What we know:
By secondary structure, chain A is mainly α.
Amino acid sequence: MNADFAGLVQALRPEAHLVIGALLILAIDMVWARHRPANRHHVALALGLISLLMAGYAAATGGTRGAVYGGIFLLDPLSVATRTGVILLAVLALPLLPDSRRLRHPAEFTAILLFATTGFTLMAAANNLLVAFLALELASLSLYVLAGFDKTSPASAEAGLKYFLFGGMAAAFLLFGFSLLYGLTSTLRLDLIAAQLAQQGPTPLLFVALVMVLVAFGFKAAAAPFHLWAPDVYEGAPAPAAALIASASKLAGLVLFTRLLWGGLDSAVGTVAHGPITVGWAPVVALIAGASLLLGNIGALAQSNVRRLLAYSAIAHAGALLLGVIAAGRTGVGPLFYYAATYGLATVGAFGVIGALESAGRVQQLTDLAGLYKRSPLLAGCLAIFVLSLAGIPPLAGFFGKFAVFTSVLQLGGLSGPVGWLVILAIALSAVALYYYLLILKQALVATPAENTPPVRVTLPAAIALLVAAGLIVALGLWPSAVLGLF
Amino acid sequence: MNALPCTIYVSFTGALLALVLGSRSAMAARVVALLTALTAWGITLAAATSFVPMAGLQELVNVPWIPEFGIHYHLAVDGISLTLLVLTGLAATAGILFSWNITERTGEFFALYLALIGGVYGVFLSADAFVLFVFYEIAIVPKYFLIAKWGSTNREYGAMKLVLYSFAGSALVLAGLLWAYAAGHATGFGFTELVAATGRLDLTSQTGILALVFLGFATLAGMFPMHTWAPTGHVAAPTGASMLLAGVVMKLGAYGCLRVALPLSPAAFVLLQPWIAWLAIIGIIYAGFVALVQDDFKFVIGYSSVSHMGFVLLGLAAANPVAVSGAVLQMFSHGVIAGLLFAVVGRMVYERTHTRQLADLRALPLHRLLPFAAVVFVLAGLASMGLPGFSGFPAELTILIGTWQARPLWALAAAAGVLIAAAFTLRVIAVAFFSRTGPEREVPVAPAASHPLAPITWPEKVGALLLLGATIYLGLSPDTLLDWIRPALQSPAFHAILSGGAS
Amino acid sequence: MNPSCLLTLLIFTPWAGALLLFVLRRWLPVGLSRTLPVVFSLSTLILGLVALGRFDPAVTGLQLTENQPWIRALNVHYHLGLDGLSLVLVLLTGIISPLALFGTTRSIRCPAIHGALFLLLQGSALGVFLALDFFPWFVFWELSLVPAFFLIKLWGGPGAARAAYQFVIYTIGGSAFLLLGFAALYANAGTFDFIQLADLARSGALAAKLGGGFWPQAIFLGVLLGLAVKVPLFPFHAWLPPAYAEAPTGTSMFLTGVMSKMGAYGFLRILWPIFPAPLHAAAGPLLWLALGGVVFSAFAALKQTDLKRMVAYSSVNHLSYCLLALFAVAASGPSNPAATTSALSGTILQLFNHGLSAAALFFCVGVLESRAGGLRGLGDFGGVRTAAPVFAGLCGIALFSSLGLPGLNGFVGEFLIFRGVFGLAPWAAAIATLGLLATALFLLTFWQRVFHGPAAGAGVNFRDLDATEIVTLVPFVALMFVLGIFPQLLAGLINPLVTTWAATLP
């Protein structure tokens, strides 16, 4: 093993910023801010933002170094972009911190959020099975806590518990799958695993490992049939937690598993882009993708709770993202990353609006959004941009994300294989999706507000976060090459 | 000519301005909107006067946009686009004049309206399929809000139906274009590159691609049986929006069929041609019969739009230069006429009498209460019937000539459509405006009939005169537009389809 | 006056008057709004007489032509021209229109609008008679329907709405197929011009271009249908009796006097020159249809109790004679030039003379109706002759002219037609005499029941004609006598033309 500790420290500067920042926040809060309840919230927020920004700067300017410390980490363009993206999403999610009335431990919340972000950045760079698992667990455990953080709401506790149970189960599958892989190849490094498996050829044990890994993947991506946790968690978790779960966790998870499947297991990929179909993980992923598309879109039609609707739409988007994973190995990861990142932006934004609204009362039903254009034009305008991006309306980024992913999938083999037809299905279902997205906007922009609804005051950090997210969505939609050109 | 892309930018800027100013003063928003529309229209007219008809597209802007996919921000114009650009300007100006009386959230209304117009200008100017698609979809969202917030009958349902059908149509187009791009290994999304890519595929794939793309665009054009959104949506929409939707936005679909779908695969087109023609014919005749039995005045106009668009699609299906030039002429003509009809029904009649039911209007001597509206509607109705002297006649004549050259039986069916159009238009003129005529009638005069209705305002008069002038001018001098359209059809892009399509 | 725009002036002067009246309707005093339409309407007569002065009957081609390119993309020309046939019809229009306006305008409400619509109608009819390219011809043909619709609907009787609607729909129905036929002709021949198409047909090139099979026949049928509805040819005549009966008097006069001639003119100017062979092939069945029209309409008139409907059916009857002659000529070909000439000149004369007599009759019925407060049944009158001898005299002359009494104008046309048809298709002539018989019966019934016998119903204290009514009827009656005794005044205009037609039959 190459003991390049200097390189390791350089590579992990963002993680260092985040961890030190988290510890600092806890310390300062315990020592000083606890005695000033009015400022606790602001102190935690400020410190959290500073540490995130420094970490983000470090990640963006770190540059690609290739394998680090003997191949435990891999800093290629994808990981650099993902680390930066994840941190950016966390920056946008953090200002949504509920105020002191609803959140009694802002420092702990911020610190755990930073730990979760650390987990994400490690996931993005992991090139080693064990590190990958550790990073995944770090992130997941943090997210479980964050989901159940709102002690005033039984739904939050339920969300946290459900997330933990499902997540724990998925982690167990993943570990078992990883141990099988180690057993098959005697190495933990992904590139060496790939070489070994290519030599060995497919074995039944490999397929068992594949299934295990795919179960965990499905859970992380909230894809059917592993999606059952998503509606409840999205409904119950506090807004910034839900935002993070829906955006950064998905992005990091997708990148990790893409690297795993294409970087480590690409010999077992199978064919699904043109007939005849051969066995491998790609057909399974395609199946999961199809199921998610159908279930997510159709399930969303029946929802009257806006958070659950966003959850089902997340499942639908997961389906499309999984198609992007199938194409990523052959046509490049650019489209997948773009879609996942901009989807993350839009989701953070959508939950951000919900979070900002919650300062004036619960936001659960669609009708709670009624008359938003009157109560807060800023929130209404931003919500319009986020929802339309999710719906895939140009010139917003969500449209181009879908376009890029669909094109790259079709470039695999046109319509001669099932995955091409899945793209057609996805395109058709996007018309269905527009219906439920327009329902949200109908409430927010067309319906008149109910009588004596309290006015909405949006805090400055939240407003800035929302505007930045909206601006990014518009800008990236008009100039996608800014992101695509990175790969 | 090079100022043409400014129509897009001016419209979007005007939209933003109207939004901002509208929160302060409704009149400011109106003035901004009118000035924006006039400026954009003025640009198109200026381009028209200096236009030299040529066979191919004349470049305006061509810069790389997303090199990873070979997408260029490519705008160009030819005689066909110019015709439709001028129509957009005219319809937009008239629509804003007829929306002068909107008082609720005026700024937002005009912002959405101008955004819609900007998107439409963009579609007509696009020379890259991706750009066309982007502008096409940009136009979808304002449609929803215009109808859902400011509309009338069944507006939320009508808005959702209209938007979902439009989006579904565009989804089909996207599917087809992506298929062609990916499977045919196209180098970019320009029209010629996509045609080349499609040509590399086998006939089954080509037929599938053409079917998807044509069907997608034809949905927006109101082709049977995907037309049901049009009457519901247009009736639900506020007057200015109906004028634009029926007058111009439906033409987006027909334009897409002509510009994008038709040249894609001449071989596949030969296979699909009879289907398209017969669906168009069924649309003409079926929608005409449905219009004949409607009780709501606006529904008659809504179904008549579907019937007239059937003529356009039939002309495109016949696929020879005469028929297609007639189709484009009909696009312009119907755009103006539909605008007129919706203006009279929605703005002049409904907003004063608060009813559109023919049974109620029958009890009012509208020709005495609203003489200007009566005259305008009579003229608009005559134009809609295809009476010579108005723009519909040369358009329908040219389509009949071209269709006869393709298949005489289709022309026969189309002629029947002309007759049905006359029947339902005449019925609605007679019942709505001229039912209480003569010295004595058996039915007693309703009390409302003796109250004078609000006079016709000057924006309505100007708008009506603009549109009437356009239809009469074109009826007597269609050469103005045909001189632009016919050379454009000689471009190499259309060559294969227009010579191969005719029998 | 520049001779080359006389025809344009003919057509557009009434339209200019219509525009003037429409624009100034609110500011015109009532008297002026009643007289201005008559003045503009008279322009047609004056300009028509000028044209008559310039016209040379010996030249059988088109004279006073105007030919400008109009729509290059469709090879459409603004082509006007005059020959004997059109001149006769222009003069007829010039006589009937001002008299119809003058005689009825004083009882019309909103006279400015009524006058404007009437002038619009008049100009359109003139356009039909003078246009020689399908596009402008069709413009005028269809545009004439609009003022007719409104005239019937807004000033007509109780059933006017339905009658007007039916009238327009029937006619547009026919003209939709007429339009299709010409679109098809253009698609194959590349021109809309009647003269050029006739030349192509004569040289056989048109048949070659159209090819064989079903569709060229379909084109012919389309054009035939469009024209047949207008004449009307049995059985496409159902629109006519209600429309003529419900229309106000002045409009009925114009409809029967001028508009009905548009259809027959179309047969002579368009159908026969461009489709000689198909017409020859179809002439047999068409002859039977014309006969049906002659006989059935005459017997239908016999059964009417409404005087206006009776005169309407008699119009169908008289126009069917014209078609009878034409189809007989087409059926028999060039075998008998003398008979052909006779039939053709009889047709044209009958067009003119029927126009006069029918218009006069409608006016008389209008007088009866206005005196009786809206009643116009056969049984509502009696013994009018004693109370109103002048009226009885003038109306009687009109009745007998319609009957075809020798010495009056109606005889000449009918005689020539029968002579021609008897030479070409004797059996048809024989059957047609049944129609003559029935016509005589119902006209004499009219004469007897209304004017003779004891004074009854509205015939009691029937006020005789006043000055306006006399001034309206006298020109009709005078012409009836003059043309009855000196038919060559009219025949001289058309004889060379007709002879040429007969000689150039395929």
